[in-house]
Amino acid sequence: MAYISGTLLFLIGICLSLAWHEAGHMLAARAFGMKVRRFFVGRGPTVFSFRRGETEYGLKALPIGGFCDIAGLTSLDELTPDEQPRAMWRYPTWKRTTVMLAGPVMHVILAGAILYAMALTVGLPNLRPVTEPVVASTSCVGAVCPAAEAGLREGDRIESVGGTPTPRWADVLTTVRAADGPTALVVRRGGETLTLTVDIAQGRMGASPQPPPAYVEGGLPETVAFTGDLLKSSISQLAAFPERIPAVIKAIGGEREADTPISMVGASRLGGEAVERGLWATFVLLLVSLNLFLAVFNLLPLLPLDGGHIAVVWFERVRDFVRRLRGRPAGGPVDFTRLFPATMVLIVIGGAVMALTITADIVNPIRLQ
């Protein structure tokens, strides 16, 4: 039951994230005076709706994202006489670009807000774990433990070995392996600095380190840095996506590799597993990662994505600049009917890839380790 509840909760989280994306478009469009006809959460049949001002708001039956209907998004949009002056394609380039960027930016804002809350409470995942030179225990396979005999205790921080500074546990290992016989260890114990003499035998002294923390508390700087790391990871994943498609096909009938792409179905299943195991931090991080991936994905310069619309806007801008240099008037909005064949090809390819990943996530899902 916890698994099913977690899966449904993750699906709702995806739906609200996509609706939040559309809210970004709506808020930016309204701020510039564009007409927003409709803003709905979900898809399919209408559950309910109401009108506030010139915009109709509502909820659809299927929890699949949402949509924001801005008058004049493209030149193909049919406009009423009162909408003609406020058609989006009539607005300056920077305003149209801002409206299209607002959706992906909302994903980053949402992810950043969640991560900031985590940083102040449970902490952020430690992406760069460094094992500090702090002793967790002293033990040896044999009867004699040089570290214990020298008086090394749990919690001692080893500052140097044989005069060599040891800022990390890896440095401790390197210096100990190179030493033999009585060796001076400078350790910090509480507020004291002590010098112990350890009789190192065969490059060993019999001490183990405290493992690095899985989560690290922080504030705004740590949140910004962590968000940046996740964004870089999303870009890398997206860049590697085409070459991972054969692995998705292979996963349908064979072994599934851990780094193969997953669909919303696969992500929701992982969310369900996280809730089932009580790993709420993992659940939240999955949702955060998904939002950042959606932000990057939507900026691809391909229609019907936001990045595709931005590419068209700036094509118009560059084209009109060249026309002005030649003493010719602006060329007007791009004819989207000429882009329709390429857009349909991309939609078909995207649909096929989505079908493959969904199939793989159903028959051979990736599971939490």
UniProtKB/TrEMBL annotation:
Keyword Ion transport: no
SUPFAM superfamilies given in the database record: PDZ domain-like
GO MF: peptidase activity
The Peptidase M50 domain, residue ranges: 10-320
InterPro entries: PDZ_6, PDZ_sf, Pept_M50_Zn, Peptidase_M50
GO biological process, one term: proteolysis
Assigned keywords, A-Z: Hydrolase, Membrane, Metalloprotease, Protease, Transmembrane, Transmembrane helix, Zinc
A Pfam family matched in the record: Peptidase_M50
Membrane topology, record value: Multi-pass membrane protein
Domain of life of the organism encoding this protein: Bacteria
Transmembrane segments: 98-119, 279-300, 339-363
Reported cofactor(s): Zn(2+)
UniProt domain PDZ: residue ranges: 141-189
Subcellular location: Membrane
Family named by the database record: Belongs to the peptidase M50B family.
UniProt protein name: Site-2 protease family protein
